[in-house]
Amino acid sequence: MLQEIIAFIILALAVGFLVKKYFFKKKKSSKSCSSDDCGCH
Amino acid sequence: MINQNINVALIGNPNVGKTSVFNQLTGLNQQVGNYPGITVEKKIGFCKLPNNVKANILDLPGTYSLNASSIDENVVIELLLNKNDKLYPDVALVVTDVENLKRNLLLFTQIKDLEIPTILVINMADRMEHKGISLDIPYLEEQLKTKIALVSSRKGFGIEELKKLIVTYKTISSEPCLNASIIDPEYFESLRKAFPSQLLYKLWLVITQDVNFLNLERKEIHSSFTKSHSDLKRLQQKETIKRYQFINDTLKVGLKVDASIAKDFRSKLDRVLTHKVWGYVIFFLILFVIFQSIFEWSKIPMDFIDSSFASLSTWAKDSLPDGVLTNLISQGIIPGIGGILIFIPQIAFLFLFISILEESGYMSRVVFLMDKIMRKFGLSGKSVVPLISGTACAIPAIMATRNIENWKERLITILVTPFTTCSARLPVYAIIIALVIPDKRVLGILNLQGLTLMLLYLLGFGMAIFSAYALNKVMKIKSKTFFVVEMPNYKLPMFKNVAINVIEKTKAFVYGAGKIILAISIILWFLASYGPGKQFKNAEEIVKAKTESTALTAVELENEVASYKLENSYIGIMGKTIEPVISPLGYDWKIGIAIISSFAAREVFVGTLATIYSVGGSDNDDTIKNKMAAEINPATGEKVFNFASGISLLLFYAFALQCASTLAVTKKETNSWKWPLGQLIFMSGFAYLLALITYQILK
Lengths: 41, 699
Hints:
The structure holds two protein chains of two kinds.
Chain A: H1 2-23
Chain B: E1 6-12, H1 18-26, E2 43-49, E3 53-59, H2 71-81, E4 91-97, H3 101-113, E5 118-123, H4 128-131, E6 133-135, H5 137-144, E7 147-150, H6 159-167, H7 185-194, H8 200-208, H9 218-225, H10 229-254, E8 255-257, H11 265-273, H12 278-319, H13 324-341, H14 344-360, H15 362-376, H16 384-389, H17 394-399, H18 407-416, H19 425-436, E9 441-442, E10 446-447, H20 448-475, H21 495-529, H22 533-537, H23 539-546, H24 554-567, H25 570-582, H26 589-597, H27 604-616, H28 624-630, H29 643-655, H30 660-670, H31 674-698
Helix pairs in contact in B: 3-10, 5-10, 12-13, 12-14, 12-20, 13-21, 13-27, 14-21, 18-20, 19-20, 19-29, 20-29, 21-27, 23-24, 25-26, 26-27, 29-31, 30-31
């Protein structure tokens, strides 16, 4: 039973990781302008 | 980032050894990985200086001047103009090459005009004696109003002195070494009066460049001080001439070259390496040796890693208490991770060779050689750099197109770069080649497997050029850009630089793809271990009833049950659904699942099959390669990975756009979904058709 719970937690983490990676954009850490298009031009 | 650290910016022309100085200062304390040859964005490292001073070292993209013409050059200007940027330099190190001081000093004089404390780093000083060069350092320091550090980043000398000099940055003059306003005193005077609190040269850069300048109202400057485009260009030319006059006068006294001592080994070698016939012959011979070596040298470590993971999987199964988690570890996680780590030797050897070619200065000659071919296909030489960088990864290669000024040329390069063989394809190629191409020699010396790998690389490059040609015809590019390639001196590759590069790239490969592979392996294991309906639940009874008449051993029965369960699991049902689409290509449903999951990243292909075969069989003690080799198609009774299906798979992976990140970066760089979707449909559609035709002919 315990093994099953841990396995499913790991599964949920794996799904969460992929969803975050492919469906949510990373927040920018810097407010300054670099080579990224920050929209300030 | 720690606030009390001082910011040190490394600035300079391309190929003056900025990254080598960066490596010497930071060692392995680097935050951002990059790819060989080109620094497209800011790269940050950390360094401890004397007197317990800590520094953030910024390696900026190479630029010839502050008159930016491409996006990567803008990175430098935007940083230098934005005092609010947390990485705004406290001190700038302008790195120059002792043999190209005159050209390199143009940028130096511009940065001095921005009134940032600036140290002139004269690199490759170890070559001075050999080249008959002598410098009058006190005179140069006085004229250029700076401190000079003579260093050799290759031999490591002068680095400690440079560190000591950086600490004293507050005492270094920030006074400009020439007055740029003399090009049009009246205009500059009115500008100064209008913005008395602003630095004059900054204002001039804002007017002439398309850069961000936070503290000023750009529109206000433009409306009040508008000049025609041609007038501005004329003034810029005048500025450059003034700067070169100053540099010439300074170097006339400060730099002496004894021509009788200088040897002309470089031009002799260049004549051979860039020869219109021998240049290509030598390049292909080098490629040939590289791909032969990748296969030959990697065999032993790869077999070792493969068998170690197989043993680890068995050990986990036998040692851990029975249960779901143990199955997940032994059948999902371990085979999944093994599926990526097995390729470390090949990836490391590939980057070892690329780094050596870059470090030695040969890669610039290759770019020059390839430029001649590219022009015939309607691309500029600047497209060569992303295409060659694409052998590492398409993502930074696509970002490297930022230095192509012409939008259409840039777009074509972005669209065709994913055809070049990236390192993520290597695991797929390596395992399929090992399965379907015999490990034998042709003509006594040529390894057939290595030869196949080389052909696949050439095929990718050829397809990229052919597609560029076709796109060029369709899009009707009229304008051309000029291409200037720096020909650095030939050097013996520095072990430290090569080692850092190999470690950095291999780490990026393992961690970048590794996390995705691990997550996908876990999900795949779940989908392969659970299924809906009675058929999955009652698999054992159904198989027993079916095989009642045949006398099966316990192991055989276990295999039959595992195989039946897999077919009726979630993944089995999904695979069976798509099977009609992929079976004409010679693939079974398991390969179909691997193709779908590897859309996240190509390397996932092998890990997926390793997980599926582990769940579907009882023998965990076998290697991935052996499991794939033993896989039989129940419908035909033939091996799943035979010559026809293997070649079909190789061609599919050579051309299909199996990389979600490439799509994302293309969208980002083109600012539209139209181009990445077109890229996906064309590349994957073409790959499907070619794989279909190939299989149908070869089967």
